[in-house]
Design brief:
The chain has 353 residues and is α/β, with parallel strands linked by helices. The chain contains 10 helices and 12 strands. Helix 3 packs antiparallel against helix 7 and helix 4 packs across helix 6.
């Protein structure tokens, strides 16, 4: 197995893993499922020094790259030599979610059964399916136990799902700017809005847009609104004051993302959120939890802390809460990484090796 030792200047190692036959919770069997991933650091003998980084809804495994920046999906200040997730100590793995757009099998992939793109026929996933594909990947790499799972937003859903689906496979989880509560209503509203928005694009063709110039313009509009909801304007005001310049900068960032991300991935992952709800399974969590929210997050506001922490306590879960004092909303985990990195470092230092 070839892995690289993380360094400030070397990129993460990008690879992919193929599962010949992957059975979903629905019973559907997918053939030739590919899971793209990136790694930093070196796996120790025995395979017990791995840290799994789980990415957000619209980001990907590039979030652990040394030069990933400070945006919503960038954790270069969290992962690296001497950082809280120390690549001189840990073997760090960040897989691209099944159904996402950064190398893993998704709607744009060829369905081996038909020889055509999956498009709108891509099977319905659950967060458990996404986690199961990651479990298969880790076992193929020789990982026998995870030191920790750390992830923001949708990555936090995955961390919670891991803790109930594979409760003995990790020593701690750190869900950030996220929630363990049911997401059905959010999912249904999100997917309905996405379908309606894409449906107004003449190139949509019921999701078969690959041969019709695509729907990049609609993706740019969606991403622009999302970035504003995530708190990008606060970040840009650090260097820009002109509202027109700020709006142009947001559109540029949205355009770059829209060129890389597939519209169906928004629907596939949005729909998977609908079945997510680990709150009823808190008693199955066996490991310490560090739960982190951002003071200004509109997506997962800090008002979640009180009911969630009470539910953890009632279930006997050893949980700690840290509120990130940031003006950057949902983007705070990357932009204000320095404000929660010390807490993460201290928390991980108390986890038995």
């Amino acid at each position: 197995m070839n892995v690289n030792i993380g360094s400030p200047i070397e990129p993460a190692t990008a690879k992919s893993f193929v599962i010949d036959e992957f059975k979903l919770r629905s019973g559907v069997v997918m053939r030739g499922v590919e899971v793209a991933y990136r790694t930093r650091g070196k796996l120790a003998p025995g395979g017990r020094n791995a840290v799994l980084i789980t990415h957000g809804y619209t980001s990907g495994p590039q979030m652990i790259e040394p030069a990933a920046g400070v945006g919503e999906g960038a954790w270069s200040e969290i992962v690296g030599p001497g950082k809280p997730v120390d690549t001189d100590r840990f073997f760090v793995v960040c897989p691209n979610m099944l159904g996402s757009s950064y190398g893993s099998t998704n709607a744009a992939s060829i369905n081996p059964s038909t020889g055509r793109r999956y498009a709108a026929s891509f099977p319905e996933l659950t967060v458990s399916d996404i986690v199961a594909s990651q479990y298969a990947l880790l076992r193929s790499l020789g990982v026998t136990h995870l030191f920790a799972i750390v992830g923001p937003s949708y990555g936090g859903f995955q961390a919670f799902q891991w803790a109930v689906d594979y409760p003995d496979f990790m020593s701690a989880i750190v869900p950030v700017v996220t929630s363990p509560l049911a997401q059905r209503e959010r999912s249904e509203a999100n997917v309905a809005n996405l379908r309606a928005t894409f449906g107004r694009n003449p190139n949509w063709h019921d999701g078969n847009y690959y041969d019709h110039s695509g729907v990049v313009d609609t993706l740019i509009d969606i991403r622009t609104a999302t970035l504003k909801n995530y708190g990008i304007e606060a970040r840009l005001r650090e260097t820009l004051s002109d509202p027109v310049a700020i709006e142009a900068a947001i559109r540029r960032e949205a355009s770059h993302w829209a060129e890389e991300f597939d519209a169906h991935s928004l629907i596939i992952l949005g729909r998977a959120m609908g079945s997510f709800d680990v709150a009823s399974r808190f008693r199955e969590i066996k490991v310490p939890v560090l739960y982190i929210l951002s003071r200004t997050d509109k997506i997962f506001p800090p008002t979640l802390a009180s009911p969630v922490m009470k539910a953890f306590k009632d279930a006997g879960v050893a949980a700690e809460y840290f509120e990130l004092d940031s003006e950057f909303g949902h983007s705070a985990s990357g932009k204000d990484a320095h404000k929660w990195a010390p807490k993460l470092r201290e928390f991980l230092s108390r986890i038995p090796a």
